[in-house]
Amino acid sequence: MCDMGMTGERRRRVWRWAVIVWVLAVAVGGGLTLWVQDSTEPQGPYVWEQTKPGATPDLPPCPAPDEGGAALCVYTDAD
């Protein structure tokens, strides 16, 4: 016959160690993620790209279906 008291205590101890290992792994992984992320970011001011709202975009010509191109090719203007 098994002693249920020792089994429950042992199970709690195993769960406790599993939780401790998991918390440490999450903390180390998060720290490494932040460290690597900070080291890959450019060091300098951020600049927004300047666009011209009135300019038409440089789109390739729509190929004709008889040339083996797309059967449907539609470009719309955002205006």
Quickly list its features.
mainly alpha; 0% strand; 1 helix
Q: Which helices and strands appear, and what pairs or packs with what?
A:
Blueprint: H1 4-40
Explain what the structure shows:
The protein has 79 residues and is mostly helical. 47% of the residues lie in helices and 0% in strands. It is built from one helix and no strands. The protein is elongated and about 80 Å long. The N and C termini lie far apart (82 Å). The model has no long low-confidence stretch (mean pLDDT 76).
Summarize the structure.
The protein is mostly helical. Helix content is 47%, strand content 0%.
How many runs of DSSP E, i.e. beta strands? 0
Largest sheet: none
Work out the radius of gyration: 31 Å
Please report the distance between the alpha carbons of the first and last residues: 82 Å
Number of helices: 1
- Classify the helix fraction into a percent range: 40-55%
Shape, please? elongated
* Mean pLDDT rating: 76
Give the H and E element order: H
Structural class: mainly alpha
Q: What portion of the residues fall into strands of 2 or more residues? A: under 5%
Uncertain regions spanning at least 5 consecutive residues? none
